[in-house]
Amino acid sequence: MAVLELRVLGGLEDQERAQLLTDVHRSLVEVLRVPDDDPTVLITDIDPDSAIAPGGRSSYALATVTMFSGRSRETIARLIERLQGAVGGATRLAPDDVTVVVLQSPRSCWSAPGGPTAADVDLGFEVEI
Asked: Which residues are bridge partners to 94 per DSSP?
């Protein structure tokens, strides 16, 4: 399970949003090796008057990935690189304008269909990659 919340300062054009949804979803599936229907992706436009971006940037995105604990440092680094590239490739943002934060929590802290927690069910994929 992975949830990506992407906040984009100044918002996106419809075409950018559609391409971005596809590209970041693909990045999560391929890097984390999860089923296509596993990751959740949420994109939110942020009004520039409602935020202060690092360095006073006018173009900025914050991607927060929350996922099960257990991925290796290499997998996390690959995910960060892929997400920065995906956001930059689908939008007007440079990779340096994209901050990715990866939060990991134990499976016992996630609800899951078929069990009280994700630690109690067969996920159908490996987490420790």
From this structure: none
State how far the Cα of 26 lies from the Cα of 98, in Å rounded to an integer: 18
Q: What distance in Å separates the CA atoms of residue 28 and residue 12, rounded to the nearest whole number?
A: 21
Give the CATH superfamily of 2-120: Macrophage Migration Inhibitory Factor (3.30.429.10)
Task: Give per-residue pLDDT as tens, 79-125.
Answer: 999 999 999 999 989 888 999 999 999 988 888 877 688 877 777 88
Domain locations along the chain: 2-120
Q: Is the pTM of the predicted complex or chain greater than 0.85?
A: yes
| The token pair that represents 64 in the structure block | 């927060």
Question: Helix, strand, or coil here: 53?
Answer: coil
